[in-house]
What does this fold into?
Amino acid sequence: MVIEVTGGGYSCIATMVNTSAYFNCKTDSVNNISENIEIRTIIDGTDQFVLSLGSYVKPAVVGLSATLTTTVFPSVVELPTKSNYYICTYYSEYSGLFFTDSSGQTSESYNYIVGGSLGSFSQISTYSLTEIQTISSQIVIIRSYYPTPPNIYVVPTTFSVLNNYVNPTPSFGQVTGNTLTVSASKIMEAQTLGTNVYAAPLLINQNDFYGEYPNYYPFGLNSYSPSSTSMTMGFKSLVPQSYQVISKIFNVQYYDNAVTTQENPVLVDLKYDYISGREMVVTAVATDDVSGIKSIYLFSIDKSYFKLYELSSCDIINGTLTSGVFQKLITYNFENILGNLRVMVVDHYGRTSEYSYLNAKPLPQYIYDFSNIINFRYTGIYQMKSDIVSISFKSSTMDLSTSPKNNTMFIKFQSPKPDISVALYFKNEMNIYYRFFIGDWNEDIQQMEIEFYLPSRLLTGSVFYSISYPGYLLESPYLNHLYPTSKLNVYSQDCDRMPPLIISNETFNNGSYFGFDLTINDKTGFDKGFVSIKSDLDEFRFNFTLSSQGKNALNDVYRLELPSFTPCITQTFSLDIVELHDINEAVSSYSNGMSDGISPFLMIMDSISVLPVSCTQFADTVAPNLSYLYPSRNTVNTASEDRQVSITFSITDNSAIYYNHVPYCMANSEGLVFYTTPSKLVNYTTTIAFYQCDFDLPFGFGYPSDCGKILFLLYGFADTRLNIKSTGNTIPGLIFVTFNNNGPIITRTSKMTSLGGSLTIYGRNFGVNPQNAIVEVSYRDYTFNYTTSILYSVLTVIDNILEKQSEFNITLIINGQRSNMVIIQTVYVQPLPTSTPNPTSSGSKCPGTPECGGSSNGICVNAVCQCKSPWIGSDCLSQVIVVPNPTINTTDPAIDNNFNTTLPDGDTVTLKTLISIVFLNEMNINNTLIKEHPFTTWIFTNQTTVNQTLSQQYQYSTNITNNGLTTNITITLQYFTEETTLIFANQLLTILPSSIKYNIKLTPYQFSSELNYLQLIMSASIESTSTDSCTYQETGTTNDSNNDYVKLQIDNNSLYGRFIKRGVIDNRVRTIENIFFNNNESTNSNSNSRIGINIPYFRKSVELDPDFSVLLDITNANDKDNSICEQISDKGLSKSQLAGIIIGAVAFALIAIISLSYYFYKKRKHQQLLNEMDKKLKNFN
It folds into this structure.
């Protein structure tokens, strides 16, 4: 779609979202505005619609209210060739909009509201001037829309610029150094004379690509003396020798080898794996004939200079540079919505191959689907399919009158988007995006949540913002139209966007020190700043950091002092760079004579001080010499974590070292790669100074390298007469470099809270085979070996980090090689809510006779038994018994186990336990069955290893299909021979001996409704061969309230099933519900139950972990209420039953005799009392 605008004074852009078009038009010049504008939309050469809009009319009223005043800075009418000028306007009866519009200027102007409150505002309009021009300005006051005309006030001051500013350009003489020093070292050097050498980037070509030499002082400077008008420049670099290298600088060829590379590199495969939020792993396979792969990157032909990601040689994880696999973790951004993506592959010779298709198929999508964006390259117009339902804020109005405030944006989509991030952007006063915040999916509220803050004292009104997420870039005016709650307002009682200003700039020179005294003023408070001082004789800068701490933030003096030297040279110092911040985050800046916004020198532009320093003439043109250079090591492995290299060196001079004029160091590797750092002064006298440069070299620096070396160069050591020199032609520092990936390295981890959960571990050399990877996690009392749930060479993920830990240690073990140990500090978060027993009085009793089985078995706490090992159960009257290894069923995950036990009367009976998984049902919100999925066919795998002595492990897998999506169900069955402590859902679990544990995992399921849930049905039973047994069932919550349980008892034995109240749903621990179904199928010899595990709606995955044990109970089933026993008769009674009857009869007889005796005793005593009372009454009468 193309838009055409008819009518003067406006330029427009358009955004189309779904079926809506959003037009954004701005005025180009108020003097050329038409009364109406017409917007035509054209698609494929055909008009789609025409939109007519009324506009502001051409100014018809010229005048000024007495409530408007202006002040101009600077006050002179003839401005320097390169400068700013400002018009400050105060309007005390604000109504509508006002801005400054000027005629004659060739550069864009900016208008800022810098202060005021409702009804009265201050505005600053600024212009950057670099060309001959005469400028007249006018204040345009727009009170309303068409047909109300604006008011115009002409500013009486006219400015003139008399000369064009000419940018300095570098100038170099004839190159004199077509030399290649010591052949074994392969160092190439070019020398030349030049002026203005740092005015533009310095490019060095090598074959078909170029490198940018660090183009700022003092790099490349071989020697300089104030008596000379030019600098002697020297450029050194290392070049490979295994293939042809043609290096050029200033179009002069330096070096040519015989071996050539003929073929372009080839991209074989490309893969993107989403990790979380804004992270993904990029894996590429590429080949090259000779020089090897140098770079693989993604770009858009709309912005070819912008690389969305880049893999380099050091990202190789397998193979060689001529045929290898490259992998990198990238954090992607949404700042640029780009279409027309291409992948570029570059080799070390410089040959390239560009791909839009791979293996006759389109490239895999990077981050998002660009089909939402139409014709961006040619029209600059977005057309997108928005699926946002609503946008809102925690606080729709923010009061910023006194301090910055935090807030939260909420975005609801038509369908959940847990796998993306949304970026929220705000603009500054210059209409530049300067602050952004990244949001993440909130599973609890099913919305995107973006936490952000705004600085204090912003202008009252609505806030302009933009949001972007994969494939979308939307601005607040459009969003406010679609979603009323998306409007964000701020209020400031007294707006203050005026940045800190320097109101006085005084110089001083007391013989020992000289410098500047800056008086900094700010209405609400100066915060921090940076100032750089430079001499007119060289490019070295003395830098100062300012802070208001301990100062009067509203108005105070900040001293910048430099030491005086003897001998010295006459020179003039000036403030070259100034940047000041206030507590409201308003910024003033100044650099090299100009400001992009408001200058900190706004108030004193007519009198910015410079500081001349006069010295006695002293003839000295000899620069200092490098007398000593020593690297801290001979070899560095840049694939390791220890990549620190220190270069210690000393400088001598025949007069005086300018020791504050600190030198810089450069590390140089093959392929035109440079790394720089300033030196630190270690010690000094007048004529000798010792310095040290500390390098922390980037990972992979110097790889690949034919010569296997890194070149270190020194630049910018000087004497007090400003004779400056570098290592120049002297012997440079060389150390050997290797790139040996010897074992895993952990570089960082994701944040971890006290709730536990998943931990992402970042680093290198993690391998690609999960079978070879173990993460050792050491807690305070336990150490566990974790398997990885996700593994790449650059990261791995482990689940089930234990909750309630303040810190723990991790070590990654790959094929037996241990990584560095990392200590993880957790952030405390309020624990998940759990059910607790109802409060009871201290007098309430616990179950059991005696309570809790007596003091040896457990103790009673608030009517809940706390059992002592090995006793378990609600009454602590049960303990685990060892049963034979279960019979493993290879057709389905059912455990059908038989074992013998002895009854109290000495009879031996056989018990049979059966545990099985029956159905997976989809249920609706009303608990009505929607779809039943029975399990029919399972694939069995024995996962028990030879060294696995404490447990046996078997896996069963099957799948179901619903609404076109296949869901995989994997059940891992483990039998434990000994007591074991495990972690599930971030909590410790004690697995009893002879226990069977089911680990159940589900992949995504296509629900019929997001309100539905799944119910996994399990069946458990215990059966006796005895015909005179009793059975008993018990369900409830364990003593720690974390688990539900079912207990199926026959006589003195029970099958005990524990069902954790937690599950891992979409990689998050969530509370789940367990249902125990009532049934009437149990008999005196068979106790069975069905259990339903309710699984809430999920998108990715589910993991459950029930377990079962066989118990010996002290209390027989026939002694418990509601037990089921065989009807007792005279015939065929068992010994135990007869014993029970006899004991019962004897007990009854004894109770009867005692009761009758007590009755007659009480009757006799009662009669005696009546006789005594009768006697007393007679005496009374």
